[in-house]
UniProtKB/TrEMBL annotation:
Matches recorded under Pfam families: GFO_IDH_MocA, GFO_IDH_MocA_C3
Domain GFO/IDH/MocA-like oxidoreductase: 127-236
Source species, domain of life: Bacteria
SUPFAM superfamilies xref list: Glyceraldehyde-3-phosphate dehydrogenase-like, C-terminal domain (SSF55347), NAD(P)-binding Rossmann-fold domains (SSF51735)
Official protein name in the record: Gfo/Idh/MocA family oxidoreductase
Keywords (A to Z) from UniProt: NAD
Domain Gfo/Idh/MocA-like oxidoreductase N-terminal per the UniProt entry, residue ranges: 5-118
Keyword NAD on entry: yes
Amino acid sequence: MAALRAGLLGVGSMGRHHARILRDVEGVELVAIADPGGDPFRVAGGIPLLPDVAELIDARIDIAVVAIPTRFHAEAALALAEAGVHTLVEKPIADDSATGYQLSETFRARGLVGAVGHVERFNPALQQLRVRLAAGDAGAVYQIATRRQSTFPGRIGDVGVAKDLGTHDVDLTAWVAQSVYTSISAQTAFKSGRAFEDMVSMTGRLESGVITNHLINWLSPMKERVTVVTGERGTFIADTATGDLTFYANGTELLEWESVSAFRGVSEGDTTRFAFAKREPLRAELEAFRDAVLGEKSELSTMEEAVHALEVVESALHSAAQGGSLVTIERARR
């Protein structure tokens, strides 16, 4: 079978990594690159740098990756859909969920694979976590909490931390738990003088009853990417920065120290740090995109799922604007 002809729109901070990996994915040939802003990281190599999505389409591509600023996602993705090109759009899917819903419906109506780059689904720690939760290793899940903190990224100028990073945490939580959000409340902060928030704290509930908490900011001098899942048998901690997964089991031995046992709901048990292969998440995501185009099942974030993640974040921002009131999630029309 001939290799899928791939086009890449955008070779900035994220696009350069797509270019590197697309050149190396079996069954895919990177044949065209476009970026009206040029090639700051010099990743085009021997491939001509095209000025826009129209010329990218003219290169007779089968699949495309859109890695340009969020405000340009919709126009580019719609043009690719009209041309019959299977497309993976970097997150968030669009500026707003209504536009994202339009994209989702367009790709669905045309029978095209439309995916969104919620790459955390392919983090090895989270993939292991999902498998173990599905196997019942934690028993009934009570709570999923995430922390995503880092310094301010100068390259992000068109959205705040909630849409840029919060969509990751919302998507990975819904995917790990296999349940959608039904409500959310939030608080935001604006500390860097920008029009968009640089800190958000969100508390929600999934349809399954699981409580969720997300602490996200661009105001920390260190990088933290942690997902904590607490269940009836113990707690999993996935460090997605390192790809590590650890399980802290509830103990079965009675505590003899009366002053400690008096305030503990459970006792400490064994701690297990799991060993598993750690593939590069973006490579696994792009291989999954290839597989989906070839008709195989994958764990890609569909555009419909990405719209839900954006709806949750928009509802959180609405909650914050209303002083932290609880907001019921209204899912996109079917």
